[in-house]
Amino acid sequence: MKVKPVNHAKAAEEFLEDAPHLTFHDERLWDMRQKRDQQMHLLPEWQDLRTRASEIKEHTLANLPEYLEQFEANAKKNGIHVHWAADGAEHNRIVGEILEKHGAKSLIKSKSMVTEECDMRAYLEPRGVTVTETDLGERIQQLDDQLPSHIVVPAVHKLVPDVAKIFAKNYHTDPNDNDPQSLAEAQRMAARPVILTADAGMTGGNFLVAETGTFVVCTNEGNADLSSTVPNLHIATLGIERLVPRMADLGVFVRLLSRSALGSPITQYTTHFRGPQKGGEMHIILVDNGRSTRLGMEEFWTSLKCIRCGACMNTCPVYRRSGGLSYGAVYSGPIGAIIDPTFNERKYSTLPFASTMNGSCTNVCPVKINIHEQLYKWRRVLAEHHELPFVKREIMHMAGKLMGQPKLYRTAINGTEVALSTMPRFVLYNWLNPWGKHRELPHPVKQTFHSWYKQNRLKKDKAQ
Amino acid sequence: MKIGLFIPCYIDAFYPNAGIATLELLEKLGQDVEYPMDQTCCGQPMANSGCNSDAAAAEALFVRNFAKYDAIVMPSGSCTHHVRDNFDAIPQTEDVKHVRKNTYELVEFLHDILKVDAFPWAEFPHKVGLHNSCGTLRALRTASMSELGEPFFSKPMDLLSKVKGITFATPKRPDECCGFGGTFSVTEEAISARMGLDKVRDHHNAGAEYIVSADTSCMMHQQGCAERNGVPIRFIHIAEILNGARA
Ligand code: SF4
């Protein structure tokens, strides 16, 4: 059976029905965008930083195999075990094997989008491994059995009372205690013992540095540091595009990352990992999972520059009003809409259309990905691959024909009655009904511009 | 300079006054303007939906209609953006290149090409909220964009400032998209309408009596949202104000 495309429009409509959640979500993320703007204004060199970041990433991606090999060699010198995973299945198998070798049954984890991509928990749990997310937002999402709805603030679509209910169910706290402080405390109390007794820790990572064979994790809660240092076994999972050539390049990205993401000058923790702690083991899994294919796509390869700051989501007026879950994918918002179709073209064929292509995303992107232009290009690709709904394709086909024939077009435009008889009914219904659901139709006018012109200019000309 | 006037389909059918004002304004400014009668559409709706090949007939017709003019002027940012930046469903002949290079949105034409410094006939004693469509803003760059932190500039504001009696409201999110988005307004109607509602409320709360824009498509959508939700605000195309409309 063919998979069904994600129905973003319907999910968005449901999201919009809940006023308190909608308002909070929209304003919270807009506030992050505003804070990002303030940080930008404080740095006169902001645009230069963006250009530099983009250039470094493009250079790295253009020379990816060389830099990856350099990274691998240097990381090995540092005593890190380096693994390569072609796809999610291989990634999960590698993690499973490492854990099995150590008899590890309890894995604590700090947020990593790549493990979500690979659906790792679903693989490990039936094999007897308990996976515990340690970051607050990610943990909330895990307890609620949902994907992160945002790549930086995974539970941003939830209000405090939602969290209170989830914690009450899982931690037996008071469901009516809506004090964020005490909820955070409840999470801490529940998480600490798990962290202290865990067999293994797992993190994602923001940057791989080729010249040093090290990697960097930027967080605000510090749980990545616990996950990586309390247990003696540390597994880090990163996409192969996380690479930068030199230590010196990091300065550019670290300055941009948190400013773009949250509007704070830097994350609370910027941890550089150089190798295993004494008596411990460190593994790094470099994940491809479609990235090298994407690298070969002429129109879309620059999407690999992404540093996962989430700024494009925060600024996106559609994302803010539909929530990350409405995209039905690991990656949501503008960046999701341009990379998700590379994972499954049919399933995510609707996402490049869940946008007005207004271009705000492109403007905030710290690595200058031309997101809205890629949305436009994806639409073409999807239409060429017949991934457009039948009705839409037909409407566009007919409209295209009509627009090429001025006489027929005139007849159609001169009155809905005529239009009704010349255009199949379903065209009009599919158009006018949705328009009118939450909006008034434009008012009819007595005369089109065309006929006004004929009357007031052409006739005059002839009279002269 | 011979100017060919392009009037997009929704202006032709629903907002002829915006088209008439555009024509009259250019004539008042002493321009030689002609409206080719066989025009239909620039091809944008098809191309934006991904159906680029379906845009070919419209694009070819557009070129047949307009290749003979020195400049093609249209009161629409998104159509200008399409012709200038995306018009590639047909082979790029010399005529096509000429048309693409010489197509202007009305505001940029008045501001950059004619460099108009006065509209002595214009007076608009109202508080207006200026809406820049994303096409004019982020593609044609007729105003500074909040995301880039560039020094403030606004071509439409420059022109409107020359109108007697006009004052401006300052909405909270001046360059957030209003949610029209072409076919988006239909395929994602709920979210589109919500964005439109938020937009008109933002202007209304800032004290605007009118929303003025160089893009009628955005206003058609915003007006529908305002009317459905009882937001008391009126809409007017920038050409109408510059041409001397008083209300
Ligand atoms: S696409 Fe750009 S703005 Fe969006 S998450 Fe990636 S780096 Fe950030």
TrEMBL record, chain A:
One of its GO terms (molecular function) is metal ion binding. InterPro entries: 4Fe4S_Fe-S-bd (IPR017896), 4Fe4S_Fe_S_CS (IPR017900), FTHF_cligase-like_sf (IPR024185), Helical_ferredxn (IPR009051), LUD_dom (IPR003741), LutB/LldF (IPR004452), LutB_C (IPR024569), NagB/RpiA_transferase-like (IPR037171). Keywords: 4Fe-4S, Electron transport, Iron, Iron-sulfur, Metal-binding, Repeat, Transport. GO terms for biological process: lactate metabolic process. The lineage of its organism: Bacteria, Pseudomonadati, Pseudomonadota, Alphaproteobacteria, Acetobacterales. This is 4Fe-4S ferredoxin. Gene3D superfamilies: Alpha-helical ferredoxin, NagB/RpiA/CoA transferase-like. SUPFAM superfamilies: alpha-helical ferredoxin, NagB/RpiA/CoA transferase-like. Residues 297-318 form the 4Fe-4S ferredoxin-type domain. Pfam families: Fer4_8, LUD_dom, LutB_C.
UniProtKB/TrEMBL annotation, chain B:
Residues 4-83, 128-221 form the Cysteine-rich domain. It holds the Pfam family CCG. One of its GO terms (cellular component) is cytosol. GO terms for molecular function: oxidoreductase activity. It comes from the Bacteria. This is Fe-S oxidoreductase. It comes from Acetobacter senegalensis.
